[in-house]
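Feature request, filed as a ticket because there's no other form

It would be nice if the structure record came with a short human-readable summary line next to the tokens. Right now we just get the raw output. Example of a typical job, pasted below so the devs can see what we mean:
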Amino acid sequence: VYVRHLSSGVWSRPEPLAESGGDHFRTAIAEDGAGRIRVVWSARAGGNFDLWERAFDGRRWSPAERLTTSENSDIFHVLAAAPDGKLYLAWQSARSGNFDIWMRIYDGKQWGPERQVSNSPGNDWEPSLAVAPNGNVAVVWDTYDAGNYDVVARILSGGQLGAVLPIASSGAFETRASARYDRKGRLWVAYDEGDWNLGKDYGNGVVESGRGLLVRRQV
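Raw output as currently delivered:
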């Protein structure tokens, strides 16, 4: 994991944030209320990926801090900054044989406890975060709860998570959501769509019982 910053139109040299020689997956970056730049990444220790963070105060980077310690992998992490300076971290975590969405909140001094966002018996994948002008936070992800991937959301308001809201819930393959609030407080969500029954068993003797993985994909 490397970082560069732009100053007066010139990019700095790449600076390493994680130990070399490791196995790292994806980065997320945001600025907290004190102006510190925080970078989160996933790193493997043995067969398990966990989330780590370092913060830059304008002069130096803090030591790496481990943010998750679950028994299985924590991946597909996203960060979002709120107008009040809080940071929201959401990720996909494998626990008890199932993927669910979890989150933590940085209050300006420390990271709060983990909060489980999804509890579907089906796997839940790849969260996205969006912060509204009024401070509400939308957590959007795709779920296999109905036996095909659908896009759903929960709104965090006043510290409480609302009900699961369907965003795209047809029999099609609907995944990889991206979310953003506009200035009027409206939530916009874009996502991938594939064919109905995508990835299901199919063959020459059974017409349209399923579709291959790469037949069609569109936004």
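Something like this underneath would help us a lot:
The chain is about 0% helix and 50% strand.
The mean pLDDT is 93.
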